[in-house]
Amino acid sequence: MPVIRNSSARRRTALALALAGLAAGATTGAGPAAAQPKAAPAPAAECSAAYRIEQKLTTGTTWRMCWRYHKEAGLVLEHISYQPPGEARPVKVLATARLGQIHVPYDDGRNEYSDLTQAGFGQGLMDLAPGECPGGTIKTVRVPDAWDPSRENVKGLCTTTRSRGHAYRMQGDTANKVFQKQGKDLLVYTVNQVGWYEYITEWRFQDDGTITMNVGATGTLAPEDYDAGDGRGWPIGKGAKDYATSHSHNVFWRLNFALDGSSRGKVEQYDSKVSSPAGGRPAPTNRTTRTEVVRELAGDARNMRWWRVVSATGKNKDGHTRSYEIVPGPSAKYPGRGYTKHDVYFTEYDKCEQFASDNLPDCGAGHGKSVDKWVDGQALEHPVVWVNIGFHHIARDEDQQPMPVHWQGLSIAPRDVTAMNPLTPAELADQNGHRE
């Protein structure tokens, strides 16, 4: 996160910005397709080719989505669907997915920023060199109401594929028989500069149906901030002269689910409790309970607690209801503001509720400006998920120069979306459920 924002950047955020579309091309992946049933008719496109990303990975999975560029939030992905081998048609996952805020408070209490809504995140889209998008395509983005007219069109969106290592490995029943597959991901990302920092906003779509979203902060520490304003900053440079002020990066994601094409999903919370051995049993017991979240919730991550968003209409081939589990990454929760005190928020959809803090739209008298104010007891029928992942940045010598990327983020993982591992080899396709 930029350790300092210059005054000109703050002044520029006062400009009125217009929402603009992106000039882009579809991404199509070539490669061997896995054996699967006769292809169904191609799904209807929900956006024009200029706004569409479609990638068939070499493992047989196809991801489809639309995209656009928002004047404050930056990249927005829409109509996201997943079609693994063996599924006759795409499974819709998300209606929209984007950043909801990047909140940056400094330890000395002198500065606090909302990078999306106050510091020009959307205007800071950076050109990408070919080497930053290896094997992929860089698309040109039109930046709305560009502060610098010469930078209205930015080569700023990369779509590419990348290997991630083992998708699975299993020793077969026969000697020297090993089942293994190397996983493949579709990556979609931009780089946005705010002050001295540069944010890599990365969306990773795995061939097993998992979606991982990360923000990586890089760039440089602000030399103007080497004053240890917090009184406890870390020394940077020779001796103990320059102390970089510590600060937090609190990143919010806004996820509007549409599992199987329906917005009327439900949310469930699961908690497990381990008890001491009892009844002559040799080991402790573990009991897991399910709680249906029927009203808006500000939730806190705990040991052995998790949430899932459940489809209102879709089931897999085993007759089990499809869902996606929310898997937050490591987080340093910042308790200084009401909206950063919780790890996840489930709110009823409201078109006006767009940013987790400093919400810009005028939602009417008495309507809160941050996500914590929106949890007010409404029934959850069309849930929107806000996930808050924090990072406390205490600078170190290795942060210069330039600063290595530090990542924070989460995943959403399919739970019963398919009846078996979507990458199961044909030889094991009959091993579903009980077997001798």
**Dominant shape:** globular
Tell me the series of helices and strands, N- to C-terminal. HEEEEEHEEEEEEEEEEEEEEEE
* Class per helix and strand makeup: mainly beta
Strand content: 35-45%
What's the total number of strands?
Answer: 21
What is the residue-averaged pLDDT? 89
Strands ordered across the widest β-sheet = 6-7-8-9-10-21-18-17-14-15
Helical amount = under 10%
What is the number of helical segments per DSSP (H or I, 4+ residues)?
2
Largest sheet: 10 strands, antiparallel
* Quaternary organisation of the protein chains: single chain
What is the rounded Rg? Answer: 23 Å
Low-confidence stretches: 1-37
Question: How would you sum up this structure in a few lines?
Answer:
With 436 residues, this protein is mainly beta. Helix content is 2%, strand content 44%.
